[in-house]
Amino acid sequence: MPTQIRKIFIILISALVVVVAGCKSAPVFNVEDQSVITGNSRASMDDVKNAILRAGAGLGWTMRENKPGNITGTLTLRKHLAVVDIKYDTQKYGILYKDSKNLDYDGTNIHSNYNGWVQRLNQAIQAQLGTAPAMKGQIR
């Protein structure tokens, strides 16, 4: 192979490696049947709803209550969009993939940043449940 063609081939392979390495994809992370843990007292539907709304808003999610027990969360970062469906009651909640744009979702896998956003949302909900107004002053 002539030297010039070999150089072009190496450049193309190098560029392909960089592109593939930058596109991290992983199976979609859903939170299912996460227990509502608030300490010694039981949370009301309003306690859980407000904890979810505060957690999402604190992380930049736009939260919209569709009906009691169901919230849609939307996160827009630069050109990326992630939409989750959050179902909850007084004992459990779940965060499920609903839609996305520019996150390379293929029906199973999605850009790994999405999973990090959902994991942080879940952690924030758990933290908010621990500080729900009805729970303050309770022994934990």
Describe the structure.
This protein has 140 residues and is of the alpha+beta class. The chain has one domain: Kinase associated domain 1, KA1 (TATA-Binding Protein, 2-Layer Sandwich), CATH 3.30.310. The protein is built from 3 helices and 7 strands; from the N terminus they run H-E-E-H-E-E-E-E-E-H. The strands form 2 sheets. Strands 2-6-5-4-3 form a 5-stranded antiparallel sheet, with helices on one face. Helix 2 packs across helix 3. The radius of gyration is 21 Å and the shape is elongated. The termini are far apart. The C terminus is likely disordered.
Question: Secondary-structure blueprint of this entry?
Answer:
Blueprint: H1 3-22, E1 25-27, E2 31-35, H2 45-58, E3 62-67, E4 70-77, E5 80-88, E6 92-101, E7 109-111, H3 112-130
Antiparallel strand pairs: 1-7, 2-6, 3-4, 4-5, 5-6
Helix pairs in contact: 2-3
List the defining traits of the structure above.
disordered C terminus; two-stranded antiparallel ribbon; about 140 residues; single chain; about 40% helix; 5-stranded antiparallel sheet; TATA-Binding Protein
Give a quick summary of the entry:
With 140 residues, this protein is an alpha+beta fold. The protein has helices spanning 3-22, 45-58, 112-130, and strands at residues 25-27, 31-35, 62-67, 70-77, 80-88, 92-101, 109-111.
